Amino acid sequence: MNIEKRINAFVNLGLKISESVTNASSLLGHSVYNAQFINPWFTPSNIINAANAITQKWLKRDAMEEWVKKYPIQYFNPKKVHEVGVIMAGNIPLVGFHDFLCVLITGNRINIKLSSKDGGLTESIAKMLLEVEPEFKDFIKISEGTLKDFDAVIATGSDSSAKYFDYYFRNYPSLIRGHRNSVAVLSGNESDEELTMLSDDIFSYFGLGCRNVSKLLVPVGYNFERLINSMEKWTNLINHYRYANNYEYNRTILIMNQEQHLDTGFSLLVPNDNIDAHVSVLNYQEYNSIDAVTDYLALNDSKIQCVVSNIPINHLRLVTFGEAQRPLLTDYSDGIDTIEFLGKLNQ
Fold this sequence. Notes:
Pfam families: LuxC. InterPro entries: CoA_reduct_LuxC. GO terms for molecular function: acyl-CoA dehydrogenase activity. This is Acyl-CoA reductase. By secondary structure, the chain is an alpha/beta fold. The chain has two domains: 3-179, 3-Layer(aba) Sandwich (Aldehyde Dehydrogenase, Chain A, domain 1); 181-319, Aldehyde Dehydrogenase, Chain A, domain 2. Helix content is 39%, strand content 16%. Strands 8-9-10-7-6-11-12 form a seven-stranded mixed sheet, with helices on both faces. Strands 3-2-1-4-5 form a five-stranded parallel sheet, with helices on both faces. Helix 1 packs antiparallel against helix 3 (44-57) and helix 1 (3-20) crosses helix 6 (121-132). The two termini are 21 Å apart.
């Protein structure tokens, strides 16, 4: 199967996903509904949002062709087809799809170890791809137990998991990713529309994604009133029992410890130097100058997935408001080019 045929298959998969993700009688629609009973964080609306981001940003012919053109053609015509073990995370719906796409578009075989939290979504997508292009049959394997018989590994998990992966797969070419979060840098001059889009970056997928903003950098004396007002569209999160339990627990701890915080009624803004934050909590930190921001981002780069801002900050993974959870094909996790990793397996 040549690269043109693979691109065509994924473009058609995108069309099939768009048609079926809201169709309860389809294979994918059935999985969308059932996933919430396996993983309560995977609500139908969140799954549909994830699927839409994939079909609108990635599985378009022009986007895929431009993506492929950035690399040597031999990356997509390997002399030896490698079996790549992919250990997928399960923090947000279809979070492993980009790795799935990268392995198959480069002409390699994928051996998937799914998260127990996946909810059957990835398997449904794989079956749909086989319906679109049966020649992928010998290129896709989903392992129930321990990964075996692989040539290289891509693994994503927590920081503790990443240390284990580094050791366990030390004798194989590997791309290991740990835990990260994202940071937004505000000037105080953002429009109401930009702040509303920022709220999407914060609260989509309950804030569980590595591209979700968990930390704000704000100028000294920043007034949070407009930001809090912009969050109003997400107040319904409090109706989700797991999110509500996290909010009530974190709120109680802050009150008992008499810690400074702003309570929006469904989220908590807390002055905290940490980038990582608990569910329902948004950390913030004041800055005196953009130079101080640049230094902070450089110092903490290994903990940051992307930076959201309209300020022209010198950062490789800078995105605009509202785009944190709508990455491009070239917005690789941790800034590590997956296609480069796979393409060089034959060198």
